[in-house]
Structures are given as C-alpha cells and as structure tokens.
Design goal:
The complex is a heterodimer of chains A (283) and B (251). With 283 residues, chain A is mostly helical. Chain A has eleven helices and no strands. The radius of gyration of chain A is 23 Å and the shape is globular. Chain B has 251 residues and is of the alpha/beta class. Chain B is built from ten helices and ten strands. Chain B has helices spanning 43-49, 80-86, 101-111, 117-130, 134-137, 150-162, 180-193, 206-212, 230-235, 240-246; strands at 5-14, 17-27, 32-36, 60-68, 71-72, 87-90, 168-172, 198-202, 215-220, 223-229. In chain B, strands 6-7-8-3-9-10 form a six-stranded mixed sheet, with helices on both faces. In chain B, helix 3 (101-111) packs across helix 4 and helix 3 (101-111) packs parallel to helix 6. The radius of gyration of chain B is 18 Å and the shape is globular. The chains are: A mainly alpha (283), B alpha/beta (251).
Chain lengths: 283, 251
C-alpha cells in the first residue's frame, strides 16, 4: 500500500513537530527542575558570601565561585582566542594544502573529541607539576585553553574559508595587500562564525568541571586574590557541595547561577555581535 | 603607436590544461577594447592575466609577456599591489562589500592610508559622480552597498575602482547580471570614461561589443582568431570562424 503524497507530508510534518516538542520539553524540564530545586537556596546572601567548610551543615554562599568562574573565563579566552583565531586564519589563508596540513587538521579534529579529563591529566602533569604552578587558576585556564583551542581553530578556519571568493578578488583588484584583504574583508565576513567559536569556548569554560578538578583543586573555597591562587568555579562548587558536603539544595543553587550566567553571556555576546554586524553592513 | 598594454605570446595553463594559446594583442590607450567569444573560449582568463588576478588561483602557469607602458607586469620585481592600483577590475556579479556605500568607495583610498574624513568625502563624491551614481545615493551614503539595485551595485563597483585612480579598467561581463536599462546606463558610463581611462571589456553579448567598443578581439578555444577595428570586424570579418560567430551561426 502506498500513502498519498499529501498524507506523507502531513505525517512527516507531524513527526518533525513531535521531535521538536519532545526535545524542547526535555530542556524546559531540566532547567525548570534545577530552578525549582535551587531557588530555595538562592538569596542575596547566597550570592554575596563566600563558601564555608560545611562543618555545620551549611556550605555558605557562592561569591568566591562566581569570581573564580570570572577569572577562568577571562584567562582561558585570553589565552585561547588570539592563538586559536590566529591559527585558524593561518590554516585557511596561508597554509599550503599538503600532507602536513592534512595531518594537522586530522590531529586538531581528533583533539576536539578527546575527553576533558585527559586534558586535565595533561594539564596536571605539565602546568601543576612540571612547571610548578600548583593547583591554581592559571594552571586551570591554560589547561582549558588547550581544551578549547581545537574548536576555535576549526570553527575559525571554516568561517574564513566560507567568505566568498568574489569579495577577496574585489579587495585584491582595488590594490589591497593580502593582509589588508584578510583584515578588512575576510575577517569582517567571517566574524559571525568566529563569534560563534568564541561563544562555544566561553560556554565550555563556564561549564567545564573534570579538567579543572585536577588542575585547580576540587575543594578550594577561599576568595582568589590572584591567578596563582587555587579557586573554585561554579561547576566545581556544585560538584563539591553535591558530592562532598551533601548540601543538595545549595548545589542546585549554584546550578541556577550557572544557568543564569550562561544565558547572560550568550545573549550579550549575540547582542554585541549583531550590533556590530549591523554597523558593518551600514544598516 | 605603441599599445598601452601589449600582450606577447601568452600561453596560460590551469593544472596543465592549456586555456590560452599564443595570444598577442595590443590595447590602445583611451579606447574600449572588447573581447568576445563563446563560453570557455579564454576571454575572461586573458582579461585576468592583465592585472595578474590569476595569480590568486592555485596551480596556474603563464608563459609570455604582458607589457604595461613597455614594462613586463610579470617581471619578478613588479609589486602586484601597485599593478592592481593601476589596473582596476569590475566583475561579472556586482560584488560590493557588506559595508556602507561610502565605505565601499573609500575602501581603496583607505588601504593606501588616506583616513582624513574630508579628503575621503571628496574622493567618494567625485568617484560616485564619475560613475553616474551620485544623484541616486547621495542621501543614503550610510546605507549598505548591498541594499541598492543590481545595476546601482555595479556602478558602485565601478565607483570603487575609480576611487583608486587607475589608468586601465578591466570589465569582466559587467552587464551579464543586469537588465537592459541598467546595461544601457553602464554602456553610457563606459563611453564617458574612455576619455580618461583605457577600458577592456569581456562580453558574450555581441551587440554590446558592437555598440561600445573601438576594437574587438574574437576568442575561440583559447585562440585569438581575429582582432581589429570593431566596425570592420563585424561587417567584414576576415576569418570564416569570426563570420560564423558574429552572424550568429554558433555560440
């Protein structure tokens, strides 16, 4: 028996709708659950005080973890963005197409799929131990930078390659050097893709737990004063409260803060980049 | 008279496939030279040899000389950036940058280090006027170069080239994406520009070649079959293949 095209179309549409509905419902459920569980712990006091030892059963606030997250995000992006974007541009514009670049590309793609705890062990061996940085924000940020580099490089490379040839030729025909062409035409065109790469890296820096656990220390609770101090991020904080101190409500409270942070970061980056694009396009 | 551009025995290869066969051609100053021929005949490839745009395509090779004011542009000592300032190019698809109209025209001057706003304004106005676009866009210079019509975009691209003050303008089928009225405007513009510039235009439209050009070259399968005064080439072609093409028997 053959279904009529019209019926097939209705069925296909229905199935796609159902898939979307289930996916969205699952997301809403997770976020709703975290908020419901964590909102009880959430108060001004919770975000404005530092974590305590938890001997009394109360694990204190999350201020030091918020600051720790800020440090990690800023330093990771500070290390990874210039390197990753620069390398991506190099791979797309300057590197010749030969077995060596093919091999490099293959390595980068493989690295992007390696579990973060392996990066963590590498960071522990190199930064924490061999370079004597100890459990510290700087060791964590360097490790995390290694983790997000492959994504930034590949995304930048793809974005740069996607800029139409016609723009490049126009720039050349107006007497631009190759660098001027890249700087003023290619980068402008590739910017949405590069911003996406940075947002992905940013999200990774906020959420990453495993590789920081072994490079920043799992139970730091003091307010970090410099990048050489150990510190907790919100994710590490959540893990410690849930697994070590069994303070589940506070753990979910930190989770709420984590979700809020990601929402704020994502929407503000998108807003800034869309404003910027609009200016680029002279709209 | 010596040509402004003299191509001498040009052979050109894409990955070993020969696209141009022993082309020699003189282009006179302040004339419009049209290159015609069916698709794939090598006319665009030849045009792109004149500002070394083919350098940007991998695995290509050129033999022969292209003399611009008697100096070989393929000499290793030639600065290709300087060359392209002298030899501007307009492409088949209008390709304004995703920037404002003002910034599109100011692009070339800015790359040469001109950043003084009043100086840029002057250049932009002069170039847009020369490209017969000023009256249509003067109140909207901050609008995107992509927001205007295709014909206006192509004149914007011409203005962008003029802002660099070239001596030669290469046009690669500049009207193929445009409607007849926009095409007519570009043709009128070319006529105005030839007093100051040397123009080489590639077109698959024979009527256009006949209307605008002083001299015409007919390309076929990588060869320059015939080259001469446009009126003569269309009315009394010397080669049988030219005659077949211009009378519409093929192509």
């Amino acid at each position: 028996m053959r279904l009529s095209p019209k019926l097939t179309q209705t069925l296909a549409f229905g199935l796609c709708w159902l898939a979307a509905a289930i996916a969205i419902a699952a997301l809403v459920f997770i976020i709703g659950y975290v908020f419901l569980k964590g909102i009880g712990a959430f108060s001004w006091e919770f975000v404005s005080t530092d974590r305590t030892g938890g001997i009394t059963g109360d694990t204190g606030g999350i201020r030091s973890s918020i600051i720790g997250t800020g440090w990690i995000v800023a330093l990771t992006l500070g290390f990874a963005c210039p390197l990753g974007i620069g390398a991506g541009i190099y791979m797309a514009e300057y590197a010749r197409d030969n077995w060596l670049t093919a091999a490099i590309r293959w390595v980068i793609e493989t690295l992007a799929g390696i579990p973060s705890i392996l990066f963590g062990m590498f960071g522990f061996a190199l930064f924490v131990m061999a370079l004597s940085m100890g459990f510290s924000i700087i060791a964590g940020a360097l490790t995390l930078a290694c983790l997000v580099l492959p994504t930034i490089i590949r995304t930048t490379e793809e974005a740069v390659k996607a800029v139409p040839r016609s723009y490049r030729e126009a720039a050349y025909s107006l007497g631009s050097t190759k660098w001027q062409m890249i700087r003023h035409v290619v980068l402008a065109g590739a910017m949405p893709g590069i911003v996406t790469a940075v947002i992905l890296a940013l999200g990774r820096a906020v959420e990453e737990t495993a590789c920081l656990y072994v490079t920043m220390g799992g139970s730091a609770m003091h307010m970090p004063e410099s990048p050489t101090d150990p510190a907790a991020t919100l994710s590490l904080d959540l893990l410690a409260r849930a697994m070590e101190f069994n303070d589940i409500e506070a753990a979910f409270g930190a989770g709420v803060m984590l979700i809020i942070t990601i929402i704020i970061i994502n929407s503000s980056t998108r807003w800034i980049s869309s404003r910027w694009m609009a200016r680029m396009h002279g709209l | 008279m010596n040509g402004k551009i003299m191509a001498q025995n040009i052979n050109f290869y894409y990955e070993g496939v020969q696209a141009l066969k022993d082309i020699s051609l003189n282009i006179n100053p302040n004339e419009i030279t049209a290159l015609i021929g069916p698709s794939g005949c090598g006319k665009s490839t030849f045009l792109r040899c004149l500002n070394r745009m083919n350098d940007t395509i991998l695995k290509t090779r050129l033999e022969g000389k292209v003399l611009l004011d008697d100096a070989d542009i393929y000499d290793p000592k030639v600065d290709v950036v300087e060359l392209r300032k002298k030899v501007g190019m307009v492409f088949q698809q209008p390709n304004p940058f995703p920037k404002s109209i003002f910034e599109n025209v100011a692009f070339g001057p800015r790359r040469q280090g001109i950043n003084n706003h009043s100086q840029l304004c002057e250049i932009v106005e002069k170039s847009l006027k020369a490209a017969a676009l000023w009256d249509e866009v003067k109140d909207n210079l901050k609008k995107s170069g992509l927001s205007i019509s295709g014909g206006q975009q192509q004149r914007l691209c011409i203005a962008r080239v003029l802002a660099v003050e070239p001596e030669i303008i290469l046009m690669d089928e500049p009207c193929s994406a445009l409607d007849p009225i926009a095409t007519l405007k570009i043709e009128e513009l070319m006529h105005d520009l030839k007093n100051q510039y040397t123009i080489v235009i590639v077109t698959h439209n024979m009527q256009q070649a006949a209307r605008v050009s002083d001299r015409t070259g007919f390309f076929l399968m990588g060869e320059l079959v015939e080259f001469g005064i446009t009126d003569r080439l269309f009315s009394r072609p010397k080669d049988k293949r030219t005659e077949d093409y211009v009378t519409g028997r093929f192509g």
